[in-house]
## 1
Amino acid sequence: MYGELRVNRSVTIPAAELNWRFSHSGGPGGQGVNTADSKAELRFDLAASTAIPEHLRERALGRLEHRLVDGELVVTSSAHRSQLDNRRAAATKLRILLDAAMSPEPPKRRATRPTTASVQRRLDAKRRRGHLKQQRHERGD
């Protein structure tokens, strides 16, 4: 679990660039709640990373700038009672965040015109609905 983190096919972060910290989790937990350091905090220095290619790092820095603390991306997990599960959850969160931040922009949408048939169907539906409402008005419903 302290090993490298594979983000996608082309990017793998070595364990040396990941900093783990553990602390007490909040909330109920029974007898071990005050002694077990089950909350996991994973820090990754995105700005100084050598594992991510320059163009992907710049893209990720731009997209994640609101989440960075002094250039570091901080992810925590305290959802589970065991430290191992929280460690796995934090690593998964970091992997998903980085993968999404480094993904290419979706292609721009090209504006298209509706087909003649779809316009006709829409207008026919409007006419039918208006006719139905007109009939209700005439009957006094």
Note: The first strand starts at residue 5 and ends at 6.
## 2
Amino acid sequence: MSRIGRLPVTVPSSVKVEIQGSSVKVQGPQGQMSRTFSPGMNITLEDSQIVVTRETESREHRSLHGTTRALINNMVVGVSTGFDRVLEIDGVGYRSEMNGQNLVLYVGYSHPVVIEPPEGITFEVDTKTRQVKIHGRDIEQVGQIAANIRKVRPPEPYHGKGIRYAGEKIRRKAGKSGKAKK
């Protein structure tokens, strides 16, 4: 039995869940999400808890059991509180700012890089600590936007300049050692 799959998903009082066959629709203060899962998974709502069981012990159903439960849990958490991802900008002259809803990055290029948030994503910029906070209800979308922003100027190993995730360790390399004596 899947250790993650057998755990029930507790539904907060502010979240409304609708289950129709293998599709789940979740509504909460942050918005709504819906997703259709494999028909081999039985999803039921029992007194403010969502329980996921599998029809058979086949390899496919066993592999989908924990994944289905984790995706439902991410949906419930996303519409109730949302997900955050924090990026740090490090480097001389590197900075970020907001222009309306858009994020503007100044990271060593000849031009500023403007990133428009998709629907459901918001940016916050802290100019003192040079951090960018990405907030949204879909954990996959938040992670993908964070990866796209990081890709604009990934951290380089010699000086550590660039955009990195908060808490990410950058392996530093030694620079040139100078001329060899003849």
Note: The chain has a mean pLDDT of 92.
## 3
Amino acid sequence: MAEWTTTNALKTLRMVLNKAVLDGALPFNPAAASRLQSHSRPRQVNARQPVVLSAQKVDALVEAGVKKTPSFAGVIATAAYTGARIREVLAIRWCDIDQERKLIHLRG
């Protein structure tokens, strides 16, 4: 599993076990950070490098989106050409678009 996945699972486990300690079901939390040895704790380091698409690949992605899912073509094109995250693109409203200056204000 990825480090972030392991870390999130460990956080959830700690919360559940903390509740068990508070309820008196357990004498202590075996997953508490102070009880785990440092080598067994996940490191939150992402070893993967981001994928950077060339202009031609971005154009090909948008073209494929238009052909395959025409109803989402605008969302795909906006995300691909602006670099915005999908939630930012989905939060765009007409009032966020400045047509005179050719800008999109990302607020979401």
Note: The two ends are 30 Å apart (CA to CA).
